[in-house]
Amino acid sequence: MGSVPVKDLKKYSDTLLLPQTSLSMRHDAAVVERTFANKTGSQLYRWQLEHLDGPLFVLHDGPPYANGRLHMGHALNKIIKDIINRFNVLVGRKVHYVPGWDCHGLPIENKALAALGADPHTLPPATIRAKAKEFAIQEVAAQKEEFKSLGIMADWDNEKATYRTLDSRYEMRQLRVFQKMVDRVGLIYRQHKPVYYSPSSRSALAEAELVYQDNHVSHSAYVCFELDTQQTLKPAVGSLIKGHKQIRLLIWTTTPWTLSANMGIAVNSVMTYSFVESENLPGLTIVAEERLDALADILGQYTIVGQAQGSDLAGSRYRSPFPVEASRPVIPSNHVTTDSGTGLVHCAPAHGAEDYRAFLALDPASFKSGLLCHVDGEGNFTDDIAEVVGNSAAKELIGQDIMKAGSRSIIKLLEVAGALVKVQTIRHRYPYDWKTGEPVITLATSQWFANLENIKEAALNALTAVQFYPEVSRNRLTSFIRSRSEWCISRQRAWGVPIPALYHIPTDRAVLDSRSIGHILSVLESKGTDYWWDGPVDGFVPPHLRKDGISLSSEWRKGTDTMDVWFDSGTSWSMLTSLRGGNEVLADVCVEGSDQHRGWFQSQLLTFIGSFHHANEQTRAPYRTLVTHGMVLDESGKKMSKSLGNIIRPETIIRGGKDLKKEPAYGADVLRLWGASADFGADSPLGKTALGQSAEVLRKIRNSARFILGNIGDASSRKDFDPVPWELLGPIERYVMTELRQLEETVLENYKSHDFAKVVTALSNFTNTTLSSLYFDITKDTLYANTPDSIERRSIVTVLEKILDSLTSLVAPITPHLAEEIHHHAHGGGEDVTTRGSVFEKKWQPLNSLDVKSALAVRRRVMLLLEQARENKQLRNSLEAGIDLLLPSQGDSTWRELDVLRCDPTILKTLSVVSDVRVLDEAAFLDPKQEPRWEYTTTLHPPSTSPSQSEAPVSVDIPANAIGIRVRSALLSKCPRCWTFTRKEHTDLCARCDDAVRGSK
Q1: Its domain of life (predicted)?
Q2: What is the rounded CA–CA span in Å between residue 325 and residue 330?
Q3: How far is CA 936 from the centre of its chain?
Q4: Taking 80 as the threshold, does the pLDDT of residue 950 lie above it?
Q5: In 3D, which of 141, 104, 133, 137 has the Cα closest to residue 116?
Q6: Span 418-431, mean pLDDT?
């Protein structure tokens, strides 16, 4: 082989078709996203509403709470929604997406109260509401800008294209839904009963507003109550206590503060109770037989005097350790178990739902009127406690916090009375207010409820037709609904939608029926919901409740309760009723975090089903598909929280932190790639590693587009390009097109199933493996050195155009800014981005396919042999090598695709980036005429006979049905123009380059 002087290597560089593109190598996120934000955001949303004629697709937005800056949970939620919306635009559907905000509730009211700086009890509701509204609107505006920075497609600048639960038109729709539920007999009712109550919120809470902490600390107490032996006892009990002066019932409680409200002790009728003499307790002590071992440290050494059934104890009476005169009953109840405690349960019906139900079942009429409760709305003991503990003791108790000093004071009183056996500090699971992070209590108050027993089955039936992603989330939602019997819908706050009930002052009777609510809503329709607080009661009392000569203001008052915020957001489906006619499902998709199985997913379904008059009138849900994502964790798997200092703000990821080296500005597309890459059915970790990986995926996609654009030119330079038809494409081009088609099928399937992590994986594998490691590498020679009109180069350009078109569309839902930038540069570039349409305006068109797997199998063996030559310092560049092939006979059926190599061996040359390929017969293969400087030989067995295709043995023993593969040194000299070893001695260029140079002169 002849060598080429170094100076001649650059002689022909200007005759090569080297890549040129206006798409920069560096992704400047700030510039790109600022440039294309409106085009791919508000402008695109309006365009698709006007121009797309495909079926309507409705993604119903669960409203985030309008309080504070966005966190990563907000970002993940909106990114997932936006990917779904953009994919539907891409396939030609008209998307309806109206972002919303949940604007009522305690946190906003607390911010308003803090700003007002006054005692909330002295402020009129109108003052609080005005300040709260001002704050909520301010927060909505701030969050809207942050959502826009994520690249979310919506008509952000049109107020009518978003919704806020504080808007009058929204509130009136909500009240109309409530009216329908009131019209449904037995669904909405008022009752004085124990509910979850948050002293920190000064309001009742629903189950969905609770979070449970496993490490709550309580001071539990073992307390004895004296059995009243003066009463007539059942024989089984009376015979056991003869001769014993003191008989005590041992109870255990984790809420000692409820003991002042004790109204009974519950036993299980079918359980056995032991009467024991113990060294630690005087007299006889009664406990459940199955709890004796667990109570060993309380009782000490003991002797069982006798046993009786719970049914024998039921009906007995006992006396409280407090100086209250009346004795209390022992009652039967199935909620007594042997899992913990003593088998005897202290009952305070004002502070326990199970206690309440047990007493209600015994005597509904007399029980409600005598409910004992000594706790106010702030969680402090009231003056009424003096009736139980006596005036002297009450002086210390009144006004004390029941969870703190009040509980300790009760324990002290029990100790003085000789009833306290033991106090223990325990850590256990306990409910907290999810908004304030403070513990809740159970407290009897008068509240409004929705009776879910009336609609629960219809709701569960409706869910059977709903698709769930992931499917396992179906069980979570159905179990929450199945376990609920009622929904406490009233709250004791000023900032919210009013429950339009009237109260008869002389009797405190609540009126909320079809006629009263109809009249009230007609007033609010014309004057606005604020008028409920501002206007006089006279205007709200309907004619049928008025009496001549009686002042309405002295006879009636307006209710002050507001609706649960879950009822607010839960009725948002009412905005969608006019979108589709007939009996169609309102929303195609709803997407929220896993916590919304207890919240918005549930409240939507219940208010929708409950707003119809009869259970069989509506058996469908308001949504067709529910997509659930997990929470965002830090890189170590911990929940993000301010106390841990591990919060990462979306804004910081997009724009960077104070120190850009530590917190670089990744841009929205990298954040979106992370969101798409996450297995959002589970909790998703986020940190430098995850963001770095997403940035690398974005870089690879960008570089792939840049390589293509550099080699095919922009739209103006391609206007006269003559693409090669499919039937004339080479096998490699057909193979790459097949891979592209398979990519499209994979991506399409996973976009439809909302598995975006598989979309990202498929795109990453295609750009890294099929493009960068294979097709780009093997086509550079032809792209750079062939003439523009050669069929080989035109074939590659034809394929690259298809790749760019598909790749841009495939990534567009996830990285819209990058897709718009690529689309812009593919159509000429320039500073003005408004003159060309969006990438989303072209409907995604799939491709056809072909396969050349046998050629790739040979290539894999070639690459192993080339690597051996490199390791032995015989090869620096693969172009220094050539390939000899020995193929099985044409009639051998074990290799079905070898004809592609027989007909066109240059396929393998291109695939392997070597300088030449020869297909030889057996004699020439075993004894080649031209002796190479070095060589490596291997075999490739057919899949049915090959013992191991992972090996690459060096051998010249070729079995009959195997392929013989030899990699050797190139046989010709290096061409100074294309650098392949295809130049004959005593010539300046190889034949191809000589033609190209002559043609360019």
Answers
A1: Eukaryota
A2: 16
A3: 55
A4: no
A5: 133
A6: 89
Q: How far apart are CA 431 and CA 216, in angstroms?
A: 9
For the beta carbon of residue 585, count every other beta carbon within 10 angstroms: 17
CATH code that applies to domain 13-36+633-849: 1.10.730.10
User: Mean pLDDT across the stretch 265-294?
Assistant: 91
Residue tagged 């591990």 (tokens): 646
In CATH terms, the fold of domain 853-970 is hypothetical protein PF0899 fold (3.30.2320)
| Residue scoring higher pLDDT (636 or 48) | 48
Bridge partners, 625 (sequence order): 467, 589
Q: How far apart are CA 157 and CA 141, in angstroms?
A: 11
pLDDT tens-digit map of 153-176: 999 989 889 999 999 999 999 999
The fold for domain 53-184+463-481+565-629 equals Rossmann fold (3.40.50)
β-pair type (916-920, 188-198): unpaired
Q: Which of 151-160, 234-243, 312-321, 795-804 has the lowest mean pLDDT?
A: 234-243
Q: Which amino acid does the sequence have at 196?
A: Y
Query: pLDDT per residue over 903-916, tens digit each?
Result: 677 778 888 889 99
Across the chain, what does the average pLDDT equal?
Answer: 86
Select from 457, 468, 459 the least CA-distant residue to 624: 468
pLDDT over 90, % of the chain: 42
Please state, in angstroms and rounded to a whole number, the distance separating the CA atoms of residues 563 and 969.
83
* Contact indicator for 452, 486 with CB cutoff of 8 Å: yes
Average pLDDT over residues 78-85: 96
pTM for this predicted structure: 0.78
Helix spans in 271-404 (H): 296-299, 310-313, 353-362, 364-369, 386-389, 391-397
When pLDDT is cut at 50, 70 and 90, the band that residue 948 belongs to is very low
List alpha helices for 281-336, DSSP H: 296-299, 310-313
Reduced to 3 DSSP states, what percent helix, strand and coil does the chain have, rounded to the nearest 5? 45, 20, 40
Q: Name the token pair of 21.
A: 């593109």
What is the CATH architecture assignment of 219-433? Alpha-Beta Complex (3.90)
207 in Cβ contact with 633 (< 8 Å): no
In the chain, CATH 3.30.2320.20 sits at: 853-970
